[in-house]
Design a protein that fits this description.
The protein has 313 residues and is α/β, with parallel strands linked by helices. It is built from 15 helices and 12 strands. The strands form 3 sheets. The chain has a 4-stranded parallel sheet with strand order 2-1-3-4, sandwiched between helices. Bound molecules: 1,3-dihydroxyacetonephosphate and iron/sulfur cluster. The site of 1,3-dihydroxyacetonephosphate has 10 residues, from loops.
Amino acid sequence: MTHSELAQAIRRLAAEKNAVIMAHYYQRAEVQDVADCIGDSLALAQQAAKTNADIIVLCGVHFMAETAKILCPDKKVLIPDMNAGCSLADSCKADDLKAWKDAHPSYKVVSYVNTSAAVKALTDIVVTSSNALKIVQSIPAEQPVLFGPDHNLGQYISQMTGRDLALWDGACHVHSRFSVEALIALKQQHPDAPVLAHPECKQAILTLSDVIGSTQALLNYVKNHPDTRKFIIATETGVLHEMQKACPEALFLPVPPEVTEGVGCACNECEYMRMITLDKLYNCLKNESPEVHVDPTVAKQAILPIQRMLELS
Ligand code: 13P
Ligand code: SF4
């Protein structure tokens, strides 16, 4: 089947089954185009919390589907490829977080949404890159905080709030590998182009950036600057699809990653996000599989910090 035949078949199946298809901005363009809603991690959690659909198909990575399942325990939550994981979520295992927490009994645990359900169950409040600043600011200044797992985001929030957060040493393998030298060269070649960066990028990239924000915030910046002709982008390139739609005349210049010979690729795509294809989405809807399950005891604990986040967002 061609992409357009597959897309039509997917839409037919979604209507028959009262399924909602949600896609993250880092998904392949054709997957974003067939979805009912696209968004960043926060928007996807918010949409899941209020959907009337019987089935949620989460075109994103596993922790996003788990978050949807925790918020909607009575709905069937599907993910087109169960192997779509996240290097950042993998960098923080529940047992290790528990040991860190036990060593700091007076601290509150603030966890990025890029974590497993088991880690969320040990967390006081979940944040995404869209609301981390606001939520950390809402915690009384005298309350010490453990922040994880993204070290770069934690460092950025620490600088912005002036708070001394204890940071977990995790990182996203896509956002932490942008090349500082390549960014400097791009800025020299295109001095009129603002640099837009995700806070998961390392400090040296953020220092060279004009706008730092979540995927949605960077997209909003582009939409609000229709007369800007060029943008330099330091985040996963899936978001360029929506940016280009918003500003068809503008030139988007992705910052390339550092490449160690023989290790990794020269692109800045998240290979986990790209595991979701139209074929897999079609089969997933047709067979109603793979289905995401979360242990009910874990889910009961994990929903509390997610709900706290949604209330504060
Ligand atoms: P946001 O969707 O919150 O911007 O996060 C980016 C990300 O890396 C998702 O995995
Ligand atoms: Fe995880 Fe990074 Fe991929 Fe986002 S881009 S899903 S943080 S590995």
